[in-house]
Write a structure and sequence with these properties.
The chain has 137 residues and is mainly α. The chain has one domain. Helix content is 60%, strand content 0%. The protein has eight helices and no strands. It is globular and about 40 Å long. It comes from Grimontia sedimenti.
Amino acid sequence: MYHSALHKLGFEESLSVVQELTVIRDGIERAYLYKSSDITGIAFEELATLLDLQYGEFKAIVTPVKLTPRETEHLLAIVDLYAYCQEVFGNDQLARYWLKEVIPALDNTQPITWLDTFVGIEMIRELLKKVEHGEFC
């Protein structure tokens, strides 16, 4: 499900689907937001906004605090989409550029603006599939 995202975040590579679900249900530490920001190139504040978190909520957190299962799954979905984007374009730089590029097929909006919902994430994934298969540039 979120194998690529979990691997990028440093979880062991061979997690089963049940183990992945356990990670989601348990929640992951909010520190993974920083790591996700580094991986995707999405600014920390923007990533927090996509997850509907208040930046000030965790800006000065010292002790580990976990994301809720919903927040965890949403973060994993974004990182997983980024991994796919990276695969489609072949490198980090192009993937990061594309996510922030205005795309006519998205009513002249940036793909990143659609990552605030699971439906939006899937819509961007479908668009990437078209790019991958040469149906859309």
